[in-house]
Design a protein that fits this description.
The structure holds two protein chains of two kinds.
Chain A lengths: L1 H13 L1 H41 L2 E4 L3 H4 L9 H9 L4 E15 L4 E9 L1 H8 L1 H4 E4 L9 E5 H6 L7 E7 L5 E12 L4 H6 E5 H7 L8 E6 L5 H11 L4 E4 H4 L1 H39 L1 H9 L4 H37 L1 E2 L1 H4 L11 E2 L8 H24 L3 H5 L2
Chain B lengths: L1 H12 L1 H39 L4 E5 L12 E2 L2 H8 L4 E16 L2 E10 L4 H5 L5 E4 L10 E5 H7 L6 E7 L5 E12 L4 H4 L2 E5 H7 L5 E2 L1 E6 L5 H12 L3 E5 H4 L1 H39 L1 H9 L4 H36 L2 E2 L3 H8 L5 E2 L5 H27 L3 H5 L2
Parallel strand pairs in B: 4-9, 6-8
Antiparallel strand pairs in B: 1-11, 1-12, 2-10, 3-4, 3-7, 3-11, 5-8, 6-9, 7-8, 13-14
Helix pairs in contact in B: 1-12, 2-10, 2-12, 2-14, 10-14, 12-14
The chains are: A alpha+beta, B alpha+beta.
Chain lengths: ~400, ~400
Amino acid sequence: MNMMISMAWRNIWRNKVRSVVIMISIALGLVAGLFIMGLYEGVLNDRLNTVIRQEVAHLQVHHPRFQRDYEAVFCLDSASRLVERIRSLENVQAVSARTVAPGMLATSTGSAGVQILGVVPVDEDAVSGLKQKLIEGEGFKANRHNQVVIGRKLADKVNLRLNSKLVLTFTDIENNLVSAAFRVAGVYQSTNAPLEERLVYLHAVDLNRLMQMEDACHEIAVLLNRDEAMTTAEQQLNRLYPNLLIENWQQLSPETKLMIETTDTYSIIFIVIIMLALMFGIINTMLMAVLERTREIGMLVALGMNKLRLFMLVLWETVILTLTGAPFGLLLSWLLITHLGNSGIDISSISGAAMSGFGFSSLIFPRFPWSSLPLVLYIVCITALLASLVPSFKALRLIPVEAMRQ
Amino acid sequence: MWLLKLAWKNLWRNRSRTLVTQSAIFFAVLLSVTTSSLQDGVFDHFVRNMVSYYSGYIQVHRAGYWEQQTLDNAAVRNKTVESVIANHPDVNALASRIESYALASVDEITKGCVVIGVEPDAEPQITQLNQRVASGRYFEYNDQRSVALLSEGLAKRLQLPVGDTVILISQGYHGAMAAGKYRVIGLVRFGSPELNDQLLYLPLPVAQTFFSAENLVTSYVLSLATDKNLERTAASIHRSIGKKYEVMTWKEMMPEVDQHIQTDKGTMYIISGILYLLIGFGIFGTLLMLMAERKYELGMLVAIGMKKQKLMVVLLVESVLNVVVGCVAGMLASVPLVWYLHVYPIRFSGELAEAYQRFGFEPVFPASTDGWLFIVQGIVVLAMGFLLSLYPLLKVWRLDVVTAMRK
């Protein structure tokens, strides 16, 4: 055994060029696999961040019947105490209480169905970054009544500008129709066009007064400081408030979940293809290496080396090559991904798309895929082993007399 | 001529070597064709799913409607325009719609909803609306009755079973008062909560009467055979029907979906790049070993007086033959493979498949059988093979006879 390993080791360094080529292919395969994983992780992370930090937050709390009926009566009572309690929980970064009313928006030129959200501006800024999304106006100002913030798409659709007046109609807690005039204090832009067209923000004080609600709200959005803490926080909330409906972003935004899982699934297909390419590369190089050594192998057999040992020799060579190539690959991918993860890859230059007009970023920031590292390592090692089997069998089939005749 | 002959004989002299070299190219072509056909297929499938959900590939409105979506911007139905669009070679199906908001009310409960008047026979060709019916039944052919299809979520919120009546109130064309009552004949299911909680379908003539908008439509919805000629088709339709209309592609109507696809395409290009890198390295490794094996033989040829230039020509001919044979074989072999993946697409299961079905999508990753794909990928690998074939030439150029023949 020891002799086999030392022979394999010497064989590797006897033909440096060949060995280096194989090591580089293995390192390259590892870099390719990890890089693609990292790329997808970056893309998914970006999407997740948008959905969680700009739209739905990690968790939302509702009255169990609210989302089905959208009736104002199904509200959460003594909201301020509830919010304080949730805010004091572990891992909670920000909490925003919202009063929700479906309604109609009317101006002199048109009307539209909207979802009215009554929010406490500071809290909403912390949860969904409303303030950062403003492209016109400064948003809610203190000591002013009946201000509204609307989306750019809605503003275009019904011809509204900053400081324009509009009328909102909705039902209050006793199911009476309420209409009130508001002035546009800000226009926001988001990456989600349908939401931008539908959501309008009011100050919670104004909306609650009009809806005859006192210390109540319909929806509490909870942003956590870590994505991983979500399950624990969800369980904790469920324990504390068994009578309320607690939902996470996966339930609130099934489309995002669908998109993320689709990407996850097809990334695996492409990784398999990449690994196949790697495998053929290694097989071919090793085959050529065996062909090149025909004479030498023939001599070994003629001298009386048995077939099993010969087989093991070629196998050991490949294993050693893999084990030497892999650390280089790991180091290289870590450097590459960390570097690109800081500077970002501008895909608009690759796919030729102009996306900045919609407020999208065309940069991808790959992240080192720590979680899938064992998987990729495993795949690369199996690939290299499989690849080494073919040349090993090829070596076995050489006939010593023919091999040595040159 | 004798150079060609020598090259030919060299190829046959050591068959396993030739085979290994050609197989390197062969698998390179096979893999890159499969990859790009899967990439293309996945996007095509995704886009088809997205547009068959609601929007269609292209919509035609009266100019200005998209910016201000009110009934006052609806277009008068025009048979000539309709036949011009329907007869466009790339257009598969055409359906007219009238769309606006209304309040739906049952007893004490009132909800806002989107009312869509559709042609019962044309609409399923674009959105498969008839297959979305979860309970009750779909409209009849040329339906004129006062009947409605409700999205499940809306029906639930109105607490309305199939067979009951819903009252609609809204503002019609030019501010006319619109009110009517409709019997619910079926419920339709959409995976996206946004649509599922809002949509209410009426037969087109019934909706037109409701909105006092006789003979008006807000949009013509078009379905295409393929997404490939999207922009060209839109432009040519726009040219033929004139400036009174606006022609919008799904990319303009749903920029956020396009954005996601562009990001994914960007990552796909990067993946293809990595694949080429690996393939190129595989081919290079093979050539490298090939030259190591033939060092002695080549050194001897030069030693007995063969001119290096002539030897380079021989090697070039060998490489070209190897690359071309490998490429053609790879392209031929990829045809049945891709065809198989197209007819029996990769199916996935588990949670993701369930999610797809909830949205009414088929849980598959089909391959695209676009002929261009084979040619483009073939040429890419061919070019790569030729480029890498320069390595043996370089090696001969720098060949030192004495070291080459030293065993």
